[in-house]
């Protein structure tokens, strides 16, 4: 799957830190307030004994920017690096982190990285362009894998890493800073509304259950860092829930009526979601085929 009209040029991305709470920071693209889809978000948590980083981004240059943002805040060692999925924009920069940093992934994420790295590298080059540093990436997968809930003590900051279900990959992780109620969710939430889920692997019913579960376990004070774009609140999750509910309902109706592919696509247009800049690419080319079972 290649996208001709990319939402950003990877070589031009500049990352900047935003303080979300005491010791908790998001690292976001400098244009995060100007567009509904930006380069991938990262973040970090600073405790008394060290730092945990969330995401290493697409290449060594961006990973170095994240490390540089950490160093502006603290000289403490980066003890842990957590990847929320195997997608290259979340983990291809792992190799740039210190050898002493412990990489944490879901077991499914490590399996994907270890068995299909070259395939994913090719996908990323097609998506984000050649000569953007992806060719120089050296694969580095997990030192520690998780399959459920685990907690890390950074000294005064407790970080809970959990898998609550499939959203975009089998290895989706959420990272919650317990004392500050800040949650990093990766592409489980793509970006704030008007963005909607990317059903790259289909499985819309499973994704819907995970979105409902995420809404259930958070509260109205939670600050959510999505995979891309500005921070979100719990109520924003309902936008994704409503989108998948309607998409599934329309797909079921089209199948029941036996509509041919072109008519089914039109029935699932959902043009009220057209305000999202990625509507044509993701809704039309990815999500509709996924729920209709089209090639």
Describe the fold and architecture.
The protein is α/β, with parallel strands linked by helices. The protein has a single domain (10-235), classed as Ribonuclease Z/Hydroxyacylglutathione hydrolase-like (Metallo-beta-lactamase, Chain A, 4-Layer Sandwich), CATH 3.60.15.10. The chain has seven helices and twelve strands. The chain has helices spanning 60-73, 88-91, 107-128, 204-217, 237-257, 261-267, 279-292, and strands at residues 15-21, 24-29, 42-46, 51-54, 78-82, 102-106, 144-146, 150-153, 158-162, 174-177, 182-186, 223-226. The strands form two sheets. A seven-stranded mixed beta sheet has the order 1-2-3-4-5-6-7. Strands 8-9-10-11-12 form a five-stranded mixed beta sheet, with no helix packed on it. Helix 4 (204-217) links the parallel strand 11 and strand 12 (223-226). Helix 5 crosses helix 7 (279-292). It starts with 14 loop residues before the first strand and ends with a helix. Residues 1-5 have low confidence and may be disordered.
How is this fold's topology laid out?
Blueprint: E1 15-21, E2 24-29, E3 42-46, E4 51-54, H1 60-73, E5 78-82, H2 88-91, E6 102-106, H3 107-128, E7 144-146, E8 150-153, E9 158-162, E10 174-177, E11 182-186, H4 204-217, E12 223-226, H5 237-257, H6 261-267, H7 279-292
Parallel strand pairs: 4-5, 5-6, 6-7, 11-12
Antiparallel strand pairs: 1-2, 2-3, 3-4, 8-9, 9-10, 10-11
- Give the CATH superfamily: Ribonuclease Z/Hydroxyacylglutathione hydrolase-like
CATH topology grouping: Metallo-beta-lactamase, Chain A
| Spatial gap, N to C terminus | 12 Å
- Major beta sheet, specifics? 7 strands, mixed
Radius of gyration: 19 Å
**H and E string:** EEEEHEHEHEEEEEHEHHH
Counting helices, strands and paired strands, the structural category is: alpha/beta
Please give the CATH class.
Alpha Beta
Give the second-level CATH assignment, the architecture: 4-Layer Sandwich
Strand percentage: 15-25%
The stretches of 5 or more residues where confidence is low (pLDDT under 50) are 1-5
Portion in helices: 25-40%
Described by the principal axes of the CA atoms, the overall outline is globular
Domain unit count: 1
